[in-house]
Design a protein that fits this description.
alpha/beta, binds acetamide
């Protein structure tokens, strides 16, 4: 499977222009799976609920339908972040759309910084879905900081973690080396670039989208401050093989009964 990561520079609130630019980036490269950033076309730094309400939408809005149409035309899967509006509030969500019209919704489990002021914590939990025989697990940005996130997806059988991001810290791209290696999984972190300055606070996004293999190889890496699309092939024989030598299989040998023991004094023996 060929996996592409789209790295863009959305302008805050300019939804349709941002979608056009995302689609132009997608059209530059053939792939089976396109991973796009978190909040891929809305901008990130909301400063009031009204601000968020102006761009948020239900998962079947016309903008979302445009992504479905793109997936159908390209005969590819698209995973993208968007601000989701529901009757119960807003979620920082990612939608995976497949060319046959199937859709999977993931709502960000671990909210970052001021997202907590406007979004509800995600309630979908982690899951994987199948596309062309490959298991894909969506995650959103700050989820990376909780090792349980990628671990859970790997234990669920993910071959590729589709990690839609708006990273403002420089650590995730490096940490992916370790998370990909210990989980023996591909990690596709699609990040954005640019600076948003709203209400006296400026946030700069770190770009450098990366696709890392289960061996910790950086198969593709984008620039720190350029819009671009990068791609590489993934081989599920690697993500399905958790053996690191003829004695050790790092999944089969997990010992969950040992991971939460109580202290035991030697005098108890
Ligand atoms: C983040 O979760 N957008 C850092």
């Amino acid at each position: 499977m060929r996996v592409a990561l789209v790295q863009n520079h959305p302008e805050f609130g300019k939804k349709s222009e941002n979608i056009d630019r995302l689609f132009a980036l997608i059209d530059k490269t053939e792939a089976d799976l396109y991973v796009l950033p978190e909040l891929a076309y809305s901008g990130y730094q909301f400063v009031s609920p009204e601000d968020l309400a102006a761009v948020a939408e239900e998962a079947d809005s016309p903008a979302i339908k445009a992504f479905e149409e793109k997936a159908r035309r390209r005969k590819a899967a698209l995973v993208f972040g968007f601000p989701e509006k529901t009757s119960g509030g807003f979620y920082n969500s990612s939608l995976s759309v497949l060319p046959d019209g199937t859709r999977y919704l993931y709502r960000k489990t671990h909210l970052f910084y001021k997202e907590k002021l406007f979004f509800r914590p995600g309630d979908t939990g982690f899951f994987v879905f199948d596309f062309q025989g490959v298991k894909i697990g969506p995650a959103i940005c700050f989820d990376w900081s909780f090792p349980e996130s990628f671990r859970t997806l790997a234990l669920l059988g993910a071959d590729i973690i589709a990690h839609s991001s708006n990273l403002v810290m420089p650590y995730c791209q490096k940490a992916n080396y370790c998370q990909a290696l210990v989980n023996r999984v591909y990690i596709a972190t699609a990040n954005r670039i640019g600076t948003e300055y709203r209400e006296e606070e400026s946030l700069t996004f770190t770009g450098e989208s990366v696709l890392v293999s289960p061996r910790g190889e950086y198969l593709a890496r984008a620039d720190k401050d350029r819009e671009e699309i990068i791609a590489a092939d993934v081989d599920i024989n690697l993500s399905r093989n958790k053996k690191i030598n003829s004695f050790n299989d790092v999944f089969a040998e997990r010992r969950p009964d040992m991971y939460f023991s109580s202290p035991r004094s030697v005098t108890d023996e």
